[in-house]
Known about the structure:
single chain; mainly beta; Rubrerythrin, domain 2; 4-stranded antiparallel beta sheet
Amino acid sequence: xxxxxxxxxxxxxxxxxxxxxxxxxxxxxxxxxxxxxxxxxxxxxxxxxxxxxxxx
Length: 56
């Protein structure tokens, strides 16, 4: 299978002293070798923030 599950975590929450929000998504390993970056909603900050893939 070319698709793998990855966890993305908020990049702005730690700087503000709030708990980070995490989401699970998939990516195609063959087409996307870089880390996944998406704008997702962070309920602790109550706004959309940049979420970046973290290591498992």
